[in-house]
Amino acid sequence: MKVLSVTSEIYPLVKTGGLADVTGSLPKALASCGVETTSLVPGYPRVMEQLKNATPLVVFDDLLGVRASLLHARVDGLSLFILDAPSLYDRPGGPYVDAHGRDHADNWKRFAALSRAAAEIASGLLPGWQPDLVHTHDWQSALTSVYMRDMGCTTPVVITIHNIAFQGQYSAQILPEIRLPASLYNMQGLEYFGDISFLKGGLQTADAITTVSPTYAREILTPRFGMGMDGVLNERVSILRGIVNGIDLDVWNPATDPYLPRNYDLTSLRRKREIRQVLMKTFDLDTDDDGPVFAAVSRLTWQKGLDMLAETADEVVANGGKLIIFGQGDHDIEQHLLATAQRYPRRMAVHIGYDEPTAHLIHGGSDAIVQPSRFEPCGLTQLYALRYGTVPVVSRTGGLSETIIDANDAAMSARVATGFQFHPVTTDGLRLALRRAMHAYVEPKMWARLQNQGMKAKFSWERSAEQYATVYANLIRKSGRAASTSDIRRASF
Ligand SMILES: Nc1ncnc2c1ncn2[C@@H]1O[C@H](COP(=O)(O)OP(=O)(O)O[C@H]2O[C@H](CO)[C@@H](O)[C@H](O)[C@H]2O)[C@@H](O)[C@H]1O
Q: Which residues cross the membrane (predicted)?
């Protein structure tokens, strides 16, 4: 079965968050279910730099008015189509924002073009290679199925919602420029509160809608979590389901992680102490052993609730604990966190930045990872924490509620607890959970049991990949097609 995955980021080439982790690791897991995935990604500078031996496939003379070419390459076991369109993607900054952190003004065009190119591939642009199914991710590739249906292409499409907060909402005036008919500006089409929404277009035209945990699949049907899309989703509830994310056990493995100063596993957990020392020094914190080191590695947005964590710093520090926050995002949240850290020199550190080695060091060296998210479709950092023997403290929402088992008395005595959950999602709720974690920390046996149980928890992709493969197979069967087995290597390029 051949699948075209369309995504705005993919690990290890370009990543701003969990979307890249999923689009980078799912294809490998799907391969063992007989699914060959090729992922279409924009040719951002950092993607182009990492390509070796890319094969040019076709040139688009007029992709929404822009000249672009399509390349194929293999990187790190991934089969990739790269949309090389310098006027859209070759610029400083990240995939979505410029060097000053402002959204690229033409994001609508950049991601409409990505979707348009995907639709043309699905419609048979490449001699010898046509997907049996298309899988799109979030608003950035959601227009793919809109273009496909507009072109008369009936290949099945799955759309995955990784985060419904991002919806690709723009003025309807762009419709002619993205070459979509004005007739799509209606309730059953792209119309969205007086504008258009790329995500809504995808939800209306896909054959299956998935999101990244069963709990979040239920939550987004409510006004509180649906963020305006709950109406559309309720209408399409029969094709909506949640499939929990897995993690790449090779990339996140404390026994082999090249970014850790020492490697360890379940039988050598004491080595974590040494990593902790390195972490303290890296973040300029006291290296004493008085209390736990709580850490957060996160995009700094309202969603992630780290403003609440900052408000609990007094309590953590008063109990001998330390706090590390590493991430980047909204300017105001960054400033608030930095200002709080100044009040607790050598006990609290906030570093604004984004890099993979530091994220791994924090997972290896801290005692507990804190994720006080206000909503969380799945969440990956708590899963990485489990694998690293680092105890998660999480809000009870979305995927966090089903991936962490709270250390209440029953779960402790049944030896299944893996972390601490809190609800309601408020500063007081978080404060209480941190208190519980600090009490557990001073009981070495209890803490070790939590670490042990967490490290044994299973969050590989295996089961989830099978679920995606079943969704794909059912759609292909329903569409009356036979999944093809031809391989991209046998195509004409
Ligand atoms: N400063 C930094 N430096 C280095 N790495 C950093 C970093 N800040 C964050 N990261 C990394 O980014 C990833 C974050 O993934 P999450 O799934 O936890 O959240 P995100 O909100 O980005 O993803 C969305 O999509 C994913 C995938 O479906 C869902 O799990 C999630 O709930 C949803 O919000 C992790 O790999 C983390 O290590």
A: none
For residue 83, what are its two tokens? 């949309």
| Residues whose beta carbon lies within 6 Å of some atom of ligand 1 | 17-19, 21-22, 162-163, 212, 245, 297-299, 326-328, 354-356, 359, 376-381, 399
pTM, two decimal places: 0.95
Residue type, 89: Y
Mutate to test the pocket of ligand 1, among 23, 166, 297 (most ligand atoms within 8 A of CB): 297
From the CA of 279, how far away is ligand 1's center (Å)?
21
Can you tell me whether residue 9 is helix, strand or coil? Answer: coil
Q: What is the CATH number of the domain that holds 388?
A: 3.40.50.2000
pLDDT at 493 over 50: no
∠ Cα 210 215 219 (to 5°): 85
User: For residue 269, which of 388, 363, 186, 132 has the smallest C-alpha distance?
Assistant: 388
* pLDDT per residue as tens digits for the range 42-93: 999 999 999 988 999 999 999 999 999 999 999 999 999 999 999 999 999 9
> Do residues 309 and 368 both lie within one domain?
yes
Q: Are residues 202 and 93 in the same domain?
A: yes
Distance CA 423, CA 293 (A): 22
ipTM rounded to 2 decimals: 0.98
Is 15 labelled as part of a ligand binding site? yes
